[in-house]
Amino acid sequence: MKITIVGTGYVGLVTGATFAEIGHHVLCVDNNADKIRQLNDLEIPIYEDGLEELVVRNFNNGRLKFSTSIKEGTKFAEVIFIAVGTPPGYRGEANMSYVEKVGREVANNMSSYRLLVEKSTVIVRTSEQLAGTMSKYLKSDIPFEIASNPEFLREGAAIHDAFNPDRIVVGVESEKAAKLLREVYEPIISRSGCEYLEMNIASAELTKHACNSFLAMKISFINAVSRICELTGANIDQVAHGMGLDKRIGPSFLKAGVGYGGSCFPKDVDAFVRMSIEHGYNLDLIKEVQRINIDQREHLMRKLQKELWVVEEKTIAVIGLAFKPGTDDIREAPALYFVPELLSRQAILRLWDPVATNNFRRTYPNLNYCDSIIDCATGADAMLVLTDWPEIQGLDLAQLKTVMKCPIVIDGRNVFSPAQMKRHGFIYDSIGRPTVKN
Ligand code: UDX
Ligand code: UDX
């Protein structure tokens, strides 16, 4: 089958590469000429495990192609996936201008039936707006349809998720659109045995926002419980374990920490709240999720402040710049809150991340980026853990203690255990667990 993907970012590129891998012929279009040049030179613009291998193999066998031309993309295939960004707008609402532009451009260039599939996260009833725009810009009475097929890809595990989805959600309102999308996904359904859900378009659009808001709510819930743990002497690891074994709750997304970040949760939660108000319902439940998330990072800052007393002139080793492990994505990463905050308090920063430093450098070119955790911690008055990279687990704690000026570790991801830190003589404060004073 021929498929066009418009937008070749974290979602579009993974989607395009996996569709090519299962046998489709895919044209990935992006208006960023630099990105398309890189991809045509087989340079992968983002870090995502397993992606390079898929792109190289399918580019070389001719099933995956890249272009800057939406005209070419519109001509190439009957099914066109929209995977351009939907970043937060001025007031926090989802910015739909890129999606709208794709609608206009496809309408301008199409000469026979096209199915536009919303892959990007959009607010419920976007399909109606998109259809309205397309009708206005179409030169003649050419048939088209809109469908919704939200992505549920976790960065860092996106290839795995694309081939082994928990379910595939498709919003369609005609047999023709349903048949086309079944054909797109048939190889993944038969390979993974996953559930394939067809529903109306508004339900599919809403499912995505409801999922991300629910997952964010789970994280804020456990973070709120972690605060009660700190006040009562309970331990969040034990409480979360006890909760997670209840099959109705489940163990995932119960990891307390510095709060959620990334390109999806913060903006999707915000857009969900705003959308619900526009439709006449006040989602205060989810507003509280946002408040807890912001408060959690401020709480970690207060822990650091408390241990250091004065932050000014102190050297802080910041461990982790990506919003989570396995990606170089720094969108809404906790580090983007802590770094300016600590700089404004005259701290001296040393930073480490295994893959995200280049992205961070674009905003902060003149900071001290280190090659290893030990190098980063050398001479530091305190270490601040913001991303749970697996590399941290393998650290030689005796060596870490020796290189630091003062053995203070403030752990926003609970990567160490208090008992282990006590044994090694650290002053250690984490989330929802006893503080180690030594
Ligand atoms: C995606 C979804 O689009 C977003 O809705 C979802 O919530 C998160 O994942 P992502 O792939 O992470 O976004 O975004 P990004 O990596 O920024 O990729 C978007 C791509 O679209 C960029 O390469 C950008 O150049 C391209 N683009 C943007 C276009 O090709 N045309 C445009 O008009 C705008
Ligand atoms: C999310 C969705 O999970 C995915 O289905 C898709 O909709 C895109 O958005 P992603 O943003 O890549 O994926 O990462 P995810 O693994 O969901 O983590 C999001 C944030 O929550 C990260 O900052 C992570 O550190 C945090 N998190 C996650 C926790 O703090 N605790 C947890 O238990 C899980």
Kindly report the spatial arrangement of strands forming the biggest sheet. Answer: 3-2-1-4-5-6
Dominant shape: globular
Continuous helix count = 17
> How many individual domains?
3
Which small molecules are bound? Answer: uridine-5'-diphosphate-xylopyranose
Do you know the CATH topology of the largest domain?
A: Rossmann fold
CATH class of the largest domain reads Alpha Beta
The parts where pLDDT drops under 50 for at least 5 residues are: none
Largest sheet: 6 strands, parallel
Question: In what range is the share of β-strand residues?
Answer: 5-15%
Radius of gyration, taken over Cα atoms and rounded to an integer in Å:
24 Å
Overview of the structural elements:
The structure is a single chain. This protein is α/β, with parallel strands linked by helices and 438 residues long. The protein has helices at 10-21, 33-40, 51-60, 70-76, 97-109, 126-137, 158-163, 175-192, 201-232, 236-244, 265-278, 284-308, 335-344, 357-363, 373-377, 397-403, 418-423; strands at residues 2-6, 25-29, 64-67, 79-82, 114-118, 144-148, 167-171, 195-199, 315-319, 348-352, 368-369, 382-385, 408-411, 427-429. Helices cover 46% and strands 14% of the residues. The longest helix has 32 residues, at 201-232. The chain is globular and about 75 Å long. The mean pLDDT is 97. The site of one uridine-5'-diphosphate-xylopyranose has 21 residues, from α1 and α5.
